[in-house]
Every structure is written in C-alpha cells, then in structure tokens.
C-alpha cells in the first residue's frame, strides 16, 4: 500500500513536470485570426499572449470601426487560443492521472 502511494506521488510529480513543459511549449504555438475582410489580423500564442497586430490603413480613418474590429478579432483569437490551451493541458493531466474510479468525469 505504501509503495502504491509512493508510485502515485511519483506519477503526479511527473505529470506536473509534463504540464509545465506543455505550458512552455504553448508559448510557441501561434494562433492567427483575422477579420472577415482581412483588414485586421492578430497573432496570439496558445497561452494568450498577443504577438502581433496588423491594421489596414483604411481602418485608421474611423476610430469606432477600428475598435469594433479589434474587439471582434481579439475575442475570436482568445477563444481559439483558450481552446487549444485547455485541450493540450487536459490531455497531459488526464494522461498522468492515476486510475481513480469516478475521476474520469473531471477530464
């Protein structure tokens, strides 16, 4: 029984290390998003860090329109980045979890 507990603790520590490695890797996964007409483009990492914004000159004439574009495109990009982030981290966490009855519904 004590050996099982030590084995489980070791596996949890290994899983924690894998999660940290995955978080670091997600800094290099880039999510590109753009407006429907291509006038605004953004790039985020899967950890939701903004890397670049490209704005067509035609959007600079109308502040409200530019603000609307930024909100829409950034929200879409953040949603996609969050989905990638959560999927990747959940996969690593599930892989490393000990087989405890009932825990599968949490992942």
TrEMBL record:
Alphabetical UniProt keywords: Cytoplasm, DNA-binding
Domain of life: Bacteria
Location of this chain's protein in the cell: Cytoplasm, Nucleoid
Annotated function: Binds to DNA and alters its conformation. May be involved in regulation of gene expression, nucleoid organization and DNA protection.
Record's subunit section: Homodimer.
Family: Belongs to the YbaB/EbfC family.
UniProt cross-references to HAMAP family, sorted A to Z: DNA_YbaB_EbfC
This protein's name: Nucleoid-associated protein QHT84_13380
Lineage: Bacteria, Pseudomonadati, Bacteroidota, Flavobacteriia, Flavobacteriales
């Amino acid at each position: 029984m004590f050996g099982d507990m030590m084995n489980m603790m070791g596996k949890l520590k290994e899983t924690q290390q894998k999660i940290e490695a995955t978080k670091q890797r997600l800094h290099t996964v880039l999510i590109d998003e753009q407006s429907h007409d291509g006038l605004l483009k953004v790039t985020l990492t899967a950890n939701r860090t903004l890397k670049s914004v490209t704005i067509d000159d035609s959007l600079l004439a109308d502040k409200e329109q530019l603000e609307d574009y930024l909100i829409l495109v950034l929200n879409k990009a953040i949603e996609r980045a969050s989905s990638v982030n959560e999927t990747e981290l959940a996969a690593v966490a599930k892989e490393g979890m000990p087989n405890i009855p009932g825990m599968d519904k949490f992942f």
